[in-house]
Amino acid sequence: MKNIYLFACVFLLIASNINAQGTMQPMHSMEMGFKYSLFKNKLNFTLNLSDVFNTRQFEVNSRGVGYYQEFMRKRESRVLTFGGSYSFGNLKTANKPKPKRDNKPENEGGGEGF
User: Which of 13, 77, 87, 95 is at a distance of 20 to 30 A from 1, taking alpha carbons?
Assistant: First the structure.
């Protein structure tokens, strides 16, 4: 029995956006995940960390005639999660024969003209 280790790392970058009243600043973050499988993939453990460097925030600068506004929102984005699962039985589905269909055209034998 081989134990399987999987690791994933994702970097998210949303470029700055310019609109008629101002700009949205770029937003970026990194996520990491680890999965450990035992017993031929029947028992799985996962560990995930979102926003590894705690950099995800939303920032907008807007301006118009007679005003200037800066807006920054930072939510709690760094979250560590742990999960586990176990697969009981066989996950393969049986090859069941498909039910036979009537050979009638769909526009025949209806009622009300539908």
Answer: 95
Laid out side by side, the sheet with 58-64 consists of 17-19, 22-24, 58-64, 67-73
Please give the tally of structural domains in the chain: 1
Full-model pTM: 0.62
Within a domain: residue 106?
A: no
74 occurs within a structural domain: yes
